[in-house]
Amino acid sequence: MGDASAIINNASVVIHTIVVSLKAENARLLSTLRAVQEACKCPITHALPEKPVVASDGFCYDEGAIEQWLQHSQTSPMTRSKLETGHLLPNRSVQRILEILRESGVECSDGEENEGDLQIQGPINSARSQVLFQCPGAFSVASHLWNSIFGENANT
């Protein structure tokens, strides 16, 4: 029984270490994703652009929003200097960044900062599975530990 107890204790320590590491990495990724998301937002709509374009002021806007703006004003919403009309260029870099985020399954929602805002499909559950199944006999204790840290719905 002593060997089994030692295995379970070691597995618990390993799982706890991995959980702490994953939480730190999750926080770092969340911060980075929020910064990228904020940098890509249209300054008119304060939302991610459907079709990002660059105006002559060098700023990126949602095409529909800047076209509507230009119907009422010929100045930059950011600098208030005169904008050259008809010179909206597709912002392929921002478009690609947004596509990569969508394709990767990463969503970083607006709102209050909490761990639940970042949704990454796969890595945490994958790491959990690798640890649990490489430590035979520790599954039930590790599962209980995991659920006590992440909550009962963390199994999905």
TrEMBL record:
One of its GO terms (molecular function) is ubiquitin-protein transferase activity. SUPFAM superfamilies: RING/U-box. Residues 39-100 form the U-box domain. CDD domains: RING-Ubox_WDSUB1-like. InterPro entries: Ubox_domain, WD-SAM-U-box, Znf_RING/FYVE/PHD. Gene3D superfamilies: Zinc/RING finger domain, C3HC4 (zinc finger). PANTHER family: WD REPEAT, SAM AND U-BOX DOMAIN-CONTAINING PROTEIN 1. This is U-box domain-containing protein. It comes from Polarella glacialis.
